[in-house]
Structures are given as structure tokens and as C-alpha cells.
Design brief:
It is found in: Cell membrane; Membrane. Keywords: Antibiotic resistance, Cell membrane, Membrane, Transmembrane, Transmembrane helix, Transport. InterPro entries: ABC-2_transporter, ABC2_TM, ABC2_TM_bact-type, ABC_2_transport. Belongs to the ABC-2 integral membrane protein family. It is a single chain. With 269 residues, the chain is mostly helical. It has one domain. 68% of the residues lie in helices and 3% in strands. A two-stranded antiparallel sheet has the order 1-2. The chain is elongated and about 65 Å long.
Length: 269
């Protein structure tokens, strides 16, 4: 237990000592929220029509907040861990750790603990800035926060195992960023983070619906947006149960992929 706790502390310190990781994962959602909020400050609000025909509107900061919360989870888990572990494998760090008494489980606890802590801090900052600086009204109902907690915990777990699994893709550590970041970036654009999901072509919606970010984003929209905005989702509903099933499937599949692909060093090294 002490070893695992020490690894979490070590991983957190290492994370915040890497400027590129801090900027492209920790600060990225906050910067994007500020950019969208300032750029569209004078634009007409985004409207949706409820089932009773009554229109509801929100400003751009409120509209983009849910997708950026989901993006932060994916960046902190999948992108950060994928690049970090691939780099450690390439520079020999994993091989050296494999020659020490450090259990593999403690190594993973350290990585996942780091993601959990940094994601919680990042999300708290994002919500605080959205509320205090840009005037976003945060939910008050306990049920909304229950959904938020469920999507966040399941999203973090799924993103972590996918990050560990995807770290096996880059052949060299220096190619990790070029291999993993474009995948994560494309997912952001097709999953309803920056563009209204139903404005995408049907075939692209179907592709995005296979991946977890689309469901993390819609789950967060169900928390932060008025119910009328469910009409802008496929089928006119949030589909939280289906989203949960997709995330659980990726969590299970990602865990299996981790067990199959993770090695202290590459087989071909």
C-alpha cells in the first residue's frame, strides 16, 4: 500500500514538472472554454425547443462546458497515459522498473491515481472558472450531480485502461505524441465536443457512437444543459443507459487489451 501511495505522489510530481503535459492535458479544456466564451460573447445564444414547443437558450460557455469536461477526462487518461507510458517504454524506464521489486500493480496504481487526482482538480477548476468568470449556472439538483459523478468515474476508468492499451501503438517514444494526439483530436471533433452532434452526417454519428467520448460528452450534457437540449441528441434523448453500456464495454475491452499488450519492454527490443 505504501509503495502504491508513493507511486501516486511521484507520478503527480512528474506530471506537473512536464510543461507540455500540463498545457495539452491539464490546461487545454480551460483554455478552450475561455476562447469559446470570449469569441462568442456577443453571439446569439444557442436555442433548443422543448417537447411543449417552448424554446430554451444557453450561452456558449454553458453549451461548451459539458463537452470540455468530457474532453478533460479523455486527455488526462487516454492521451496523457498513452504518451507517458510509450515514452517510458522507449527510454528504458519500464525495463529498469521491471528489474526492481516494484509490482506491476503499484505501477498502474500510481498512473491511475495520478489521472484521478489531476482530473478532479482540472474539473474543479474548469467548473469554478465557468461559474465565477463566465457566469455559467451549475446544476443544483442532487440527481444531476449523481449522473455527473457516475459519468466521471466510469469515464476516468475507461480512459485510463485505453491509455495504457494505446501506449503499445507507437514504435518509438518520440513518435508517441504524433501517434496518439491526432486520434484524440479527431474524436473530439466527431463526438459533439465542438460541433452539435446531430449536425454531423449520419455515418459519422454512427462512427463516433462506437467510441466512449461521444457518450461521455452526451452524459455531461445531460447534467449541465436544460432538458430541452435532449431534442438535439439522436433520438431526442440522452440515452444514459446505452452510454453506460458502451463505456463498460470499452472498460472491459481495454482491460483485456492492457493484459495482452503491456510489457515492461517491447518484445522486439
Amino acid at each position: 500500500m505504501n509503495t502504491a501511495t508513493s507511486r501516486i505522489s511521484y507520478e503527480i510530481r512528474s506530471y506537473f514538472r512536464a510543461p507540455d503535459a500540463v498545457f495539452f492535458t491539464f490546461l487545454f479544456p480551460i483554455i478552450m472554454l475561455a476562447l469559446f466564451s470570449v469569441a462568442f460573447a456577443d453571439a446569439d445564444p444557442i436555442r433548443a425547443v422543448a417537447g411543449n414547443g417552448r424554446p430554451t437558450s444557453v450561452d456558449y460557455a454553458t453549451y461548451y462546458l459539458p463537452g470540455l469536461v468530457a474532453t478533460g477526462i479523455l486527455l488526462s487518461g487516454t492521451q496523457s497515459l498513452g504518451v507517458d507510458i510509450a515514452t517510458e517504454r522507449s527510454d528504458g524506464t519500464l525495463k529498469r522498473l521491471g528489474g526492481t521489486p516494484l509490482p506491476v500493480l503499484s505501477y498502474f496504481v500510481g498512473k491511475i491515481g495520478m489521472v484521478l487526482v489531476t482530473t478532479i482538480v482540472q474539473t474543479a477548476l474548469l467548473l469554478g472558472i465557468a461559474s465565477l468568470v463566465f457566469g455559467v449556472d451549475l446544476p443544483t439538483a442532487a440527481s444531476n450531480w449523481g449522473v455527473f459523478a457516475g459519468v466521471m468515474v466510469l469515464g476516468i476508468a475507461t480512459s485510463c485502461v485505453l491509455g495504457i492499451a494505446i501506449s503499445a501503438l507507437p514504435r518509438e517514444g518520440r513518435r508517441a505524441t504524433a501517434t496518439i494526439v491526432p486520434i484524440v483530436l479527431v474524436l473530439q471533433f466527431i463526438s459533439g465536443v465542438y460541433l452539435p452532434f446531430t449536425q454531423l452526417p449520419d455515418w459519422l454519428q454512427n462512427v463516433a457512437s462506437v467510441f466512449p467520448l461521444r457518450w461521455m460528452a452526451s452524459g455531461m450534457r445531460s447534467v449541465f444543459l436544460p432538458d430541452a437540449f435532449a431534442s438535439a441528441e439522436p433520438g431526442g434523448a440522452w440515452h444514459l443507459a446505452l452510454g453506460t453500456l458502451v463505456l463498460v464495454a470499452w472498460l472491459v475491452g481495454g482491460t483485456v487489451a492492457c493484459a495482452v499488450t503491456f510489457r515492461w519492454n517491447r518484445k522486439d527490443s
